[in-house]
C-alpha cells in the first residue's frame, strides 16, 4: 500500500557548487571552474528525476513547502538556468503552491536583468551576501564585491520586485570596532530588509583564513569585544523592529523568518541536491559526494551520487535535538522532547541545567528550556556540558 504524504512538509536544498573566487573563511564546498556548469546542471536534473523514483525518500511521499538554492554562489547561474532548476524540481517533486523559493546571491555577480529573471522564474525570497558595507572589511574577508556593489544589489533586488529580502552580515572581523559594526547595522536596517543574518566570524579548520591565523598573519578580534558586538546586535535590531529567533537570525515578523532554515533546527525532513548536499528524514541521513566530477560521473551511470548513509541512534537524535533546540530563542519544548524520546528531560538533564540556571545562562519557564542572551555567547560550551551528561 502506498504511504500517504508526510503531514509536515519537507524542504529541498539545491547546492550550486561554483564561486568566482573562493572566500578564505568559507568551508562550504565550491569550485571556480565554470566550464563544468552545464555538466553539473544536466546531472542535477538527472538527480531530481532519479530521486523521485528511487532512493532515500521513498518510504514516505513528501510534499515540499521550501526550495532553497544556495552555494557556493548561485548567482553565477543566469535566469534561464535557475528557471530550469525550479521547473525540474516542480516536475519531480510535490512542491506546494505557496512554497518559499529562495536564492542566495552575491553583489558583484548579479545584474538587474538576472534579478528580474529570477523573480519571473518563481523565486520569491532573496538572500544577499553583503557581509559588510565597508570596503576594508570586504577586502579582509576576500570578497569580490565593493560596498557600492552591495548597495546597488539591494536596490536592484527591490526594483526587481522582491518583497522578501534577507541580508547576511559578518562581525568579529579583526580591526572592527563597535562603532564600525553599528555603522553596518544602520546601513542594513535603512533598507528595511525582512530578514537579517548576523554571523560571528569563525575560523573553520582547513580554510585559508584559519591557516593565516595559525601563521600569525593577523590577530583575531578580542573575545570580549566580540561578545559586546553580539549583545549590541540583539539590542540594536530589537530597537529597530527585528526579533531574534535563532542565535544568528532576526526577522521583522514571524512570517518573514526563513521557513527553510527552520527545518534544520526543528528536526523536519529535507532533501539535499547537488555535490556535498545532505538529506534527512525519519532519523536517516545521507550526503552526496563532495566533488562535481564525481557527482556528474555517478549520475551518468543512472545512480544517485550518495557517498554515505547513516541511521541515527536514539542517543544521537537526543544530542541533535539539544544542539538545534538551544540555537533557537524558543529553546527546547520539554513536553515534545519527553514524548518524542519517551524519557524525562528533567531526569536526564536537570542536574546539569541547575548550575547553568544559577549562573544566568539557561532559563526554564512555561515548559521550555532556553538559553539566556548571555548564555548564547557560551553556546558551544553549554551544549558540550549537556551532551556529555546524555552520553553518561
What does this structure look like?
The protein has 392 residues and is α/β, with parallel strands linked by helices. The chain folds into two domains: 10-265, Alpha-Beta Barrel (TIM Barrel), CATH 3.20.20; 314-391, Arc Repressor Mutant, subunit A. The chain is 43% helix and 21% strand. It has helices at residues 37-53, 79-92, 112-121, 135-141, 147-159, 178-190, 208-214, 223-239, 259-265, 292-300, 314-327, 334-341, 345-358, 373-377, 379-391, and strands at 10-16, 63-71, 94-105, 125-131, 165-171, 195-200, 243-246, 249-251, 270-273, 278-281, 284-288, 306-311, 332-333, 362-365, 368-371. The model is unreliable at 1-5 (pLDDT under 50).
Please give the count of helices: 15
Task: Assign the CATH topology of the largest domain.
Answer: TIM Barrel
Helical content stands at 40-55%
Could you give a short account of the major beta sheet? Answer: 9 strands, mixed
Oligomer: single chain
- The CATH class of the largest domain: Alpha Beta
Output the keywords.
9-stranded mixed sheet, alpha/beta, disordered N terminus, TIM Barrel, globular, 392 residues, 3-stranded antiparallel sheet, 15 helices, Arc Repressor Mutant, subunit A
